[in-house]
User: Fold this.
Amino acid sequence: MYVISLGGSLIVKKEINVEFLRKFRNFILNYLKKGKKFIIVVGGGKTARKYQLGAKKLKIKSKNDLDRLGITVTKLNAYLVYLLFKKYSFPQIIDNPQKNINFKEKILIACGWKPGFSTDYVATFLAKKYKAKFVINLTNVDYVYVKRKKRKIGVKTLSWDEYLRIIPKKWRPGLFSPFDPVASQLAKRFKIKCIILNGNNLSLLKEFLEKGVVRGTLIG
Assistant:
């Protein structure tokens, strides 16, 4: 069982990223043939942040409302991903990770949950629930970057304590962080590791699934 937190910015750039989605579908289907199972938690990415920014310009200030707006975008993105794998997926998109679902299908698709929690949190919760040791966070950056001597340097390994020191302390709607602080605290608590990989290069994911090689950042 592999849990993938699929960044919304991979799904939609300026337009729907058809090329990526086609490659991702073929990639996952190849591993289904090898007996793998996947939980794919779909984020909102830049599209969610655009809606939230527009809402702010329209004087919508409630954090709950802004969060719900972003969650709605994750549901739209998740439905698109669900349609790619409909034949192999549990027939519902999971919007509450606390529900007890005994799925026999090879894929489970999930989206955002409720205000105060990102899709990273949902992925971490489901990893704990279904006993996965890792959350694979497919995003659009190569590493977690830290500032050293006025330069940004990609880091290959971090403990959860080290990672939590370099990201914002609190969740807010539209927060851009490789893995959000609320999810990070949960992962630290349950000793779940997070792997940050650039999803634009699926050979990186292949290396991890087949060889355990991480050409990105391993947290935890």
